[in-house]
Amino acid sequence: MKFIRFVFSKVFLWQIIFALIILVLFCYGLLKWLDYTTNHGEFIEVPMLIGKTLDVTKKETQNLNLQIVVQDSANYNPNYPIYAVIEQSPVATALVKEQRKIYLTLNPSGYRNVGIPNIIRRTFRQAKPTLEALGFEIGNISYSDDIGKDEVLKIQFKGKTITPGTLLRKKSKIDLVLGNGSRGTQIP
Predict the structure, then answer these.
(1) Which among 2, 21, 156, 182 would be 20 to 30 A from 162, CA to CA?
(2) Residue-wise pLDDT tens digits, 33-77
(3) 140 and 98 housed in the same domain
(4) What confidence score (pLDDT) does residue 137 get?
(5) What domain range is 171 assigned to?
C-alpha cells in the first residue's frame, strides 16, 4: 500500500516530470552536437577525375578536403595517357562529406606481359582464338613445306622464332608459320 501511495504522490510525479525534461534536453543537445560535428546537410560534389594525371587529381581533391586512394591498375587502356585516372569511385557529381576517400584506378605504363600458349602442331583454326583470347594479334601468316596442312610450325615475333611460354606484351603481333600440306621434295 505504501508503494502505491508513493507512486501516485506529488513528489514522485515531480521527479518523473523533472527526469523527462532532463532526458528531452539531453537528446536535443546530443542531436545538435551531432549535426555540428558531422556537418549535417553539407556536401561536396566529387569532381570529374577520369583522364587526369595523379598530380592534378591530388591538387583538385586537396582543395575540396577529399582523400585519394590509388588502387591496383592492371588493365591498360590505350585511350588514356599513362598513369591517368581510368576509373573513380564515387563517380563524378556524387555528393559526399569532406575527408571522404576517393578510390582511383590509374592507367599502367603499358599492357601486361602474357605467356605464349603451346600452339605448335595445332591447326590455325584452334590457335587463332587461343591467341586472341589472351590479347595477342595475329600478324603475318607464312607457309612452309609440311604434311600438316594449316598446322602451326613456328611462332615468330619481330622476325625471331619464339617458344611457348615466352612472355610478350598483350596486343603484340605474332607471326605464324603454317604447314602447307605438302611433303616437300622427296629424295629417292
Answers:
(1) 182
(2) 988 887 777 888 899 999 898 888 888 888 888 889 988 777 788
(3) no
(4) 93
(5) 113-179
Residue 154 falls inside a structural domain: yes
Residue 51, CA distances (Å) to 12, 30, 48, 152, 173 in order = 70, 44, 9, 41, 27
The domain total for the chain is 2
Of 53, 44, 50, residue with least CA distance to 101 = 44
- Which residues sit opposite 157 in a β-bridge? 160
* Whether 73 and 52 share a structural domain: yes
33: in domain: no
Same domain assignment for residues 59 and 101: yes
Q: In this structure, how many other beta carbons lie within 10 angstroms of the beta carbon of residue 136?
A: 22
The 8-class DSSP code of residue 123 comes to B
Q: Which three cell numbers stand for residue 22?
A: 532532463
Going by pLDDT thresholds of 50, 70 and 90, the confidence category of residue 81 is: confident
Predicted TM-score (pTM) of this structure: 0.58
